[in-house]
Amino acid sequence: MPLVRISVSEKMPVEKRKQLPQIVYDAMRASINIPENDLFVAIHTHGEGELVADAHFMGMQRTGNFIIVSITMRRGRTVEMKQKLYQEIARLAQERIGTAPDDVMIVLAENGLEDWSFGKGVAQYVAAQQN
Amino acid sequence: MPLVRISVSEKMPVEKRKQLPQIVYDAMRASINIPENDLFVAIHTHGEGELVADAHFMGMQRTGNFIIVSITMRRGRTVEMKQKLYQEIARLAQERIGTAPDDVMIVLAENGLEDWSFGKGVAQYVAAQQN
Amino acid sequence: MPLVRISVSEKMPVEKRKQLPQIVYDAMRASINIPENDLFVAIHTHGEGELVADAHFMGMQRTGNFIIVSITMRRGRTVEMKQKLYQEIARLAQERIGTAPDDVMIVLAENGLEDWSFGKGVAQYVAAQQN
After folding, report:
1. Which residues of B are catalytically annotated?
2. Fewest CB atoms within 10 A around its CB: which of A72, C22, C40, C130?
3. Given an 8 Å threshold on Cβ–Cβ distance, is C58 in contact with B14?
């Protein structure tokens, strides 16, 4: 169920951008236990000067390749699972598209099972609980 | 007070896109009890390959017409109200712009009354509570 | 740690848009006690008819200059701090780029310390707590 929004510079080459959904999906599969094919990602591109991060906050060396990965998911993942998630996203982004780990910011938000409809106008996880 | 963000493909015809705010507003009026004229919607358009959803997860038949409706609102709506909201958004999207119910994902996030300023630099709902 | 998303019309002049991150940063520094250089902002531009707000809800006179400032931050700020934040954002937006206070909507969302990675695939605030 995670919904992933990824903010990138419009200068990021399209062939790199398009690998981001699979990168985050693979990282989530390896860390926070999502079901197969649970892939929902919106990539937001930002013009020059419209994706802004301090270059050094928290000891990083950020560049124009900076990206923000925002993930909304149901409550309940442990701190350890979240740590593994961060590690995996950063690792795969570096391995597959050469994004430096310093350039990957990740922010999580949590909600409830009743806060999701995957289609057909139905709250699938509520229906599942009631059956 | 809901703040609605809707992600659509840039290929969705403009005349359909522009009906989305009214569709979601009418659905919220009919389900979660929002006041008249409480309409705040940002539509985000995504380039090819930048709005990604698994074609079949949870038993759907998703197409290039897939949209994501993200709604932030204060805490307190019941599960039944949320279910009605999903049903109404999907129903009206199909009726008015022909979007298949399988192509409508909806995700909710909740916050507090003090988390909203509608203008003038004031937290209107806090002020209202204190009066 | 706040992550700030600002939605503006594509018609907002670039030289005004580019002042928004500093405006919100300065307001946060003056109100909610963020550390120096804690600046992370994504500006989203919306086409005509795609940033929609009721012109008068809650007694405002909204115009085409309407903007939405969404801020995600850790739980724990008081209502008074949030009120000061709203006041400061509206004040500085008017002072520096001439945006009317009626045109500034602000919405907050909160999460936990473990929900942030500022880079390197690490949950910096968790590591800090454990040391």
Report:
1. 2
2. C130
3. no
SS3 C21: helix
Chains that touch C (3 or more CB pairs under 8 A): A, B
Share of chain C residues as helix, strand and coil, in percent rounded to the nearest 5: 35, 30, 35
Q: How many residues does chain B have?
A: 131
| Amino acid sitting at position B10 | E
Please give the structure tokens belonging to residue C13: 């002049």
- Separation of CA A129 from chain center: 27
pLDDT, averaged per 10 consecutive residues of chain A (131 residues), comes to: 96 97 98 97 97 98 98 98 98 98 98 98 84 50
**CB < 8 Å to A124, chain B:** 58
Structure tokens at A62: 């950020």
- Can you tell me the distance from the alpha carbon of A68 to that of A44, in angstroms, rounded to the nearest whole number? 10
Contacts B–C by Cβ distance under 8 A: 107
**Residue among C47, C54, C107 minimizing CB distance to B116:** C107
Residue A45 phi/psi, 5° resolution? -100, 140
Distance from the B55 Cα atom to the nearest Cα atom in chain C, whole angstroms: 26
Residue C69 structure tokens: 């400032």
| Options 2.40.10.240, 3.10.120.10, 3.30.70.20, 3.30.429.10; CATH of A3-130 | 3.30.429.10
Structure token digits, residue B121: 């630099």
d(CA C123, CA C115): 7
pTM recorded for the entire structure: 0.97
Contact between B30 and B102 under an 8 Å Cβ cutoff? The reply is no
> What would the two tokens of residue A44 be?
């937001």
**What is the C-alpha separation between B51 and A103, in angstroms, rounded?**
22
ipTM: 0.96
Question: Which pair of structure tokens corresponds to residue B53?
Answer: 């959803």
